[in-house]
Amino acid sequence: MQDTEAFRDSIGTVDEQGKRIWVYPKKPKGRYYNARTIVSVILLALLFGLPFIQVHGDPLLLFNIIERKFILFGIVFTPQDLHLFALAMITLIVFVVLFTVVFGRLFCGWVCPQTIFMEMVFRKIEYWIEGDGNQQKKLNAAPWNRDKILKKTVKHFIFFSIAILIANTFLAYIIGIDELFKIISEPVSQHFGGFVSLLIFSGIFYFVFARMREQVCIAVCPYGRLQGVMLDKNSVVVAYDWIRGEPRGKIQKKKANDPLDQITNTLGDCIDCKLCVRVCPTAIDIRNGTQLECVNCTACMDACDEIMDKVGRERGLIRYDSFNGIKEGRKKIFTARVKAYSGVLLALIGLQAFLFSVRSEVEAVVLRTPGMLFQEVADGYISNLYNYQIINKTTRDIDSIEFRLANVEGRLKVVGKVPVAEKQAIAEGAFFIELDRNTLTDRKTRVDIEVYAGDKKIDDARTNFLGPVVVR
Ligand code: SF4
Ligand code: SF4
Where are the beta strands (DSSP E) in 291-372? Predict the structure, then answer.
């Protein structure tokens, strides 16, 4: 029996010897491609523009993994917010899984930076300089003449320039636009590490878009690899309607003695023109069914719609639909699996919202200084030494900081001056608490401390006060 799934044993971009088969997709055109172009322009404008937007002198978005400082839409997250960050990551993963179960790889086709840069930036430049897929293939096979050298040089010069731009933007999200400008404008010797990072990132981006291309989606991207476990028969993906399309076959000319046009009438709507295969950037034939290589780029949908228009048949032979949608005409999105994921997702979002609402922008931590015992001081008072930290997550400095004892009568003496808690930084110091030994009822006394900035209470802290064993 013929193995109809044999196409799953290999990928279309590697031959039997394991050598790369370069893909020369035909330039797509159509309503989906136009819509994706508009979406891409908006997303690219956001990607390149957001690092320039600042709130109170800080970036709107910052992912400084080196200094463990993160800013999301003007809100500063420090390592103390790790639980929020971890929960946000879990929520994101559940959202991605839920989204994929329902809508397949819609993200890959419309939002993923790899697809946007590859198909909407680098590929468009390639079409512009080297022509359509067939012309590119011819040019690559041609000997190195003046025309080829010129085209290739211009193309790779532009590619590398864009890679440098992407690397700069990428770095701006990590270190902020101000630091990036310093690296660019000041002598290399002052920012050697930053300069080398820029070069490395530029090289990586150039390699990804000039050489790796679709292999990133096929062989590297973990999200792509997980499709097999996330998709089910109700997931909406770019799908070929095999019920309508099969058996496929070329349109035959009507025979004069066959008024009923019997040959054509026994065939499905697919005229086997293979245009859907020629436009595919991952070199697959979507008519074989959903495949891991498909990035849902919609190129085959546009191509097939164009053919259907030409032959006067209804559009949508290749369309967004699910396996069950095509087989049974049923469009069931809220399956038991989707409901279960939605429940978990809502619970996580609720928890995240709650934790976020109780999150304080300033945190005070007071700990008894390790290794120090209590001391007896004048007037019958007992003294303990404490270290404090004031974690300022806001975008403004906090001064006039004052500590007050809330639940006991006593004295609180700060060692030196209380420093200004600078924005997005930790202020540290020490103070003594002195309590009258006659007020101590136990070896350990709980002490509540209120932290004020001027008249405004900014946080509470709790600690213990050690004293001598009380004998009454
Ligand atoms: S473009 Fe449409 S008609 Fe042509 S081969 Fe593909 S599915 Fe068939
Ligand atoms: S099969 Fe269609 S949607 Fe999938 S990658 Fe190829 S052209 Fe894009």
Answer: 318-321, 362-368
Give distance in angstroms: CA of 290 to centre of ligand 2: 10
Residue 218, ligand 2, Cβ within 6 A: no
pLDDT digits (tens, 9 = 90+) for 376-433: 998 889 999 999 999 888 878 888 889 999 999 999 999 988 778 888 788 889 999 9
Q: Identify the structural domains of the chain with CATH numbers, from first to last.
A: 1-141+213-359 (no CATH), 362-466 (2.60.40.10)
- Residue 385 structure tokens: 């030494």
Between CA 178 and CA 169 the distance in angstroms is: 12
Residue-wise pLDDT for 288-329, tens only, equals 988 888 999 999 999 999 999 999 999 999 999 999 889 887
Q: Is the peptide bond before 247 cis (omega within 30 degrees of 0)?
A: yes
Is any atom of ligand 1 closer than 6 Å to the C-beta of 307? yes
The structure's pTM equals 0.79
Beta carbons within 10 angstroms of residue 417's beta carbon: 8
What residue owns the CA closest to ligand 2's atom 8?
A: 297
What are the tokens at 376?
Answer: 């007896």
Confidence of residue 1 (pLDDT cuts 50, 70, 90): very low
How far apart are the CA of 253 and the centre of ligand 2, in A? 30
**Residue 69 CA to its chain's centroid (Å):** 17
